[in-house]
């Protein structure tokens, strides 16, 4: 597949490129992350405007068992199967009184303004009540909390979801194209353009870590 | 006064008369206070009006902390959308004065992002400005490089509706230029800024693609109507599709990119009488009636679609360099 013109050499990506990259990302995720729920491609068919390209990637109902005492253990980042459970296997009647199940939804949405993907997410408790950012930060790996506090380019803001008319949290896109460009340059030996199928995989390998979602190395091939 | 400046003056002076009612559940005084009458600048934001409105109601409020929000016919209003845009979008037929309800309690945080008054409005303005800069120039360095006090002054000029102050500050913003066949010499950006970005000119002197910041709000109704007063009232924001997407166009010699061209690029399913090559007939042979654009409103004006798009942008954009377009369509009948 000719990816010319889809991944731009400044680290940005076109809408067409995003569509290709998103499907490739979802496929690879499914193949290499067997124990994890898969991403779905959500078309906006209920909207008054049906634009087939206007879609986003969705990963929902990821459960983080949160101890009320401290933040999630760093080791749990290592293997994704460790700290999530299929919803059915959680027996709420025997949940430890200190543990609380927090549910997370993640959407990867294309920004036409910045020409890069953006991560939106939200957390809610089992009764559907949204979690505040303070509570969410306690669920994040401690390494990413310090990353958020110290970094100028990775921070979380509360904004309206571009399509769902609800407040979500967004990981700020500032600087995305710069580090994608760096990733692209460092990973190719002959100076070739990053193939579009790997764009979202590379992007998510960095961004996902901030919210504690690990990208299996096999996906990067 | 140059044509461009005159149009900006009209835009900045545009205002909506509001009649603000305190929500009946929050009336703690007898008799209930009369509604507040406020003239709201089109380019302003509802949270900025609170200092003007609150004195009318403060003696009637139940005890507790304020968390202020507005609704129109029960629909909570998104405070970060300029007031004029909210009016153009939600009132098919202009309602003057526009009757809104103010709440001081019970903020619907499941549907509205939080608002801390002027600070939130300012943050939203600066962020939109950065996004517009990114679209026009390819980066937001011009905003980041502006001194803190200049940024403050720019925001203050918008808050106060002070076009003179805003115009004086614009050269410091160095926003790229948007080519306009009709007022090339009178654009507000200083000549120096042309080197920074805007419509790019390559080595051969050919103009490349321009990217224009646009926020499109589309309200779809299911049935055709003769008069605007027949358009049903809006129930929820889910009836509105919001598109935050730049319009891109290639300037071709001898061809004028019109507002119609811009609308077709944003809403190809509503391309009116210009036929599309695909999608006219369903696979099973049934025909789908194309949807129809009934109304395109910008700054309260219903524009003819033949107008050159660059004129529309240069004259009718908001202070954060975004062009807000409200559209009313009849959805495709299936």
TrEMBL record, chain A:
UniProt keyword NADP, yes or no: no
One GO molecular-function entry: ubiquitin-like protein transferase activity
Signal peptide: none
Keywords: Autophagy, Transferase, Ubl conjugation pathway
Family annotation (Pfam families): Autophagy_act_C
UniProt superkingdom: Eukaryota
InterPro entries the UniProt entry points to: Atg3/Atg10
GO annotation, biological process: autophagy
Transferase keyword on record: yes
PANTHER family the UniProt entry points to: UBIQUITIN-LIKE-CONJUGATING ENZYME ATG10
Family statement: Belongs to the ATG10 family.
Descriptive protein name: Ubiquitin-like-conjugating enzyme ATG10
Protein source organism: Brassica napus (Rape)
Lineage of producing organism: Eukaryota, Viridiplantae, Streptophyta, Embryophyta, Tracheophyta
UniProtKB/TrEMBL annotation, chain B:
InterPro entries linked to this entry: Atg5, ATG5_HBR, Atg5_HR, ATG5_UblA, Atg5_UblA_dom_sf, ATG5_UblB
UniProt-listed GO biological process terms: aggrephagy; autophagosome assembly; cellular response to nitrogen starvation; mitophagy; piecemeal microautophagy of the nucleus; protein transport
Residues of the Autophagy protein ATG5 alpha-helical bundle region domain: 118-174
Keyword Cytoplasm applies: yes
Region of interest (Disordered), residue spans: 269-289
Subcellular location: Cytoplasm
Pfam families membership: ATG5_HBR, ATG5_UblA, ATG5_UblB
Subunit (UniProt): Conjugated to ATG12. Conjugated with ATG12.
Family affiliation: Belongs to the ATG5 family.
Protein name: Autophagy protein 5
Taxonomic source organism: Brassica napus (Rape)
Lineage of origin: Eukaryota, Viridiplantae, Streptophyta, Embryophyta, Tracheophyta
